[in-house]
Amino acid sequence: MSNGKRLLNSRRTFLLGSAAVLAVPMLAPKVAQAASNGYGIVGRQAPELKVSQWIDGKGKPTTFKLSDHKGKFVFLEFWQAWCPGCHKHGFPTLKKLVDEFKDSEYFVPVAIQTTFEGFSVNNAKQMRAIQMRYDLDIIFGHDEGSEEEHPHTMRSYRSGGTPWAVLISPDGEVLFNDFNINLEGAIAFLKKAIEELEV
User: What is the number of domains present in the chain?
Assistant: First the structure.
């Protein structure tokens, strides 16, 4: 059994939150509901990202590949500039996670605008604007779909819209994906898991 599956199985209560049989909330209360609706790919290998534009934390063009971050937890936040939920809890939660693990080499946060509507508003220019608005010195990407097809990231991760959070294990398996993440639970889970990686 891979480390990712072991993490998934041994900490199922943390990952499933109140949907779990045990009562220790961790990441989200609705993951079982999301899975039953056909969203998400928990337990599968994370697909490589195919994003057309990337910028680093300073707004400069860059590249990003999941395969370059094996052995680390990768946290993806899917968003759109005009998404109320992204501004209400998506970005504030992301900011708290980024600040909590800013000194950890085992936590890689990435924000990707998965544009599936409002193309004139949810455009690539918004990446830098959002970085500055929330003081997020992290990699940002822009993955634009079209009227005919959702962006690749949404399709490959089977996200239900925005905001959408994905946690990928050091083995490259998707441990969690859903609309909302339990911040306190996620921090507790990651602290413990990262401590195990550092040993």
Answer: 1
